[in-house]
Amino acid sequence: MPADRPPATRPGAPDAAFAALRPQLVRIAYRMLGSVADAEDIVHDAYLRWAAADRTSVGEPAAFLRTIVARLCLNELKAARRRRETYFGPWLPEPIVEAEDAEDPIDAIALPLMVALESLSPLERAAFLLHDVFGVGFDEIAATIDRTPAACRQLASRARGHVRAARPRFPVSRQQGRRIAAAFFAASREGDMAALRALLAEDVVACADGGGRVAASPHALVGRDPVLARHAAMARDFAEVPSRLLRHALIDGLPGFVTVEAGDVLQTTALRIEDGRIRALYVVRNPDKLRHLPERGVHRGAAPPW
Which of the four, 124, 128, 156, 279, has the lowest number of CB atoms within 10 Å? Predict the structure, then answer.
């Protein structure tokens, strides 16, 4: 964190109120934007406004700061959506990677829902996230996005309809998620197509985000046979340059792992699992989206497999 940013944890600091709220503000900004770096920048801008504000006129610091962050995010979303219109290949949010045994995961929204949020308008996204995820009342949301409470209820309701399919119907336990992720890693890297077929749902979808920076499929693969065909081709690459497993992890709430692939490419793989089968694969290879990971400074490159 740059030196000019506020202290995050120092007890008794002048900005202790902000420090206490900062984790939630970062989560709101990340959910709105899908970018760790942009979320940090937004929250830093919010701090500057907080520091310049007349505190005597601020009745509820939490509401005041949420309003600032949400409005800054709405402004940023307009530019971000324009950039994504020209983004090369599938777009995935920057992955939040946590230890498998994290007692209180910071990730309250699984990656499929993050992807589904991209189909919403900025106002729908704001109303849904603030109310359904962060428990903010519609009166506060109305003041934040300059709409009536009734309009905010409608925005949130429409958003729920769009993202309903992204919510897991049968949540997987951490133990089962780890077991399936480990089996997928082994089968895909060893070229065991029979084992891989048994792990994949018939309607599995595989998305790889390289952002034009590293090799990645330009379109999502839909269906078990296309995904198996791609992995059969990649198995030859893995035989020549083995994939290196760095760690198993929770990736945006999903079981997965972090690896180094051919060409020293850092990669995260997250698995959406339902009924014991993998319904979706989310692979992030774009180095710009992995800069916040502790492995970022060691592994660079621009090579296959994805």
Answer: 279
Task: Please give the class, per CATH, of domain 174-289.
Answer: alpha beta
The answer as to CATH 1.20.950.20 being correct for domain 16-88+119-166 is no
* Long-range contacts (CB closer than 8 Å, 24 or more residues apart) made by 201-204: 201/274, 201/275, 201/277, 201/278, 201/279, 203/279, 204/277, 204/278, 204/279, 204/280, 204/281
CATH 3.10.450.50 intervals, the chain: 174-289
The whole-number pLDDT of residue 176 equals 93
Note the pTM of the prediction, 2 decimals. 0.82
Q: Enumerate the CATH 1.20.140.160 domain ranges in the chain, comma separated.
A: 16-88+119-166
CA torsion 58-62-63-68 (nearest 10°) is 90
pLDDT in tens, 57-110: 777 888 999 999 999 999 998 777 777 778 889 999 999 998 877 665 555 567
DSSP string, 86-121: T-SS---PPPPEE-TT-SS-S--S-HHHHHHHTTS-
CB of 64 closer than 8 Å to CB of 219? no
